[in-house]
Amino acid sequence: MPRIRSILSLLLVVVAIFCVSCGGQKASIPTTYAPEKIEQLQVLVEPIEEAKENFDVLKGFIADENWIDTRTYIHGPLGGLRQEMSSLTRSLLPKDQKEATNLSKSLFTDLERLDAAAKERNSAVAQRQYGKAVNDLQSFLDLVPKS
To answer: Buried b / exposed e across 128-142, counting CB within 10 Å, b at 16+?
Structure first.
């Protein structure tokens, strides 16, 4: 008799687990941005837009071939850009996150190459990488919905 009770208890546990795991609603993933979400994204995008406006300072350093200030500016004022972009990327819809991640990686690859060009004092490569970085940053900002 005790053996039958333990088998019956085990059987009830298995049935309960099966019922719980198969039942319930599936969570739906939103496909559009709610107005509240857009407002939240606009707050997160502000520091990134400010950094984009400050890219003109970097352009001036490159044009003047001021390599020390170029490298300092990349690591200083633009140093927090990666964190800001990551935070914004996590707040986007899943359909936009992959592209945002790819653009972010591309931007920082461009900045790393720009830093290397500044270290080597190579003006042509620095200007080319600067142009790519600006384009990648603008493409990233274009992903963010406007109100």
So the answer is: ebbebbbebbeebbe
Cβ contacts of 9 within 8 Å, gap of 6 or more: none
3-state helix, strand, coil in the chain (%, to 5): 80, 0, 20
Handedness of CA 39, 82, 74, 142 (dihedral sign): negative
Q: Does residue 143 register a pLDDT over 70?
A: yes
DSSP collapsed to 3 states, 10-36: HHHHHHHHHHHHHCCCCCCCCCCCCHH
For 22-35, the pLDDT digits (tens) are 666 665 666 677 88
pTM: predicted TM-score of the whole model, two decimal places = 0.76
Q: CA-CA-CA-CA torsion for 112, 116, 119, 125, nearest 10 degrees?
A: -110
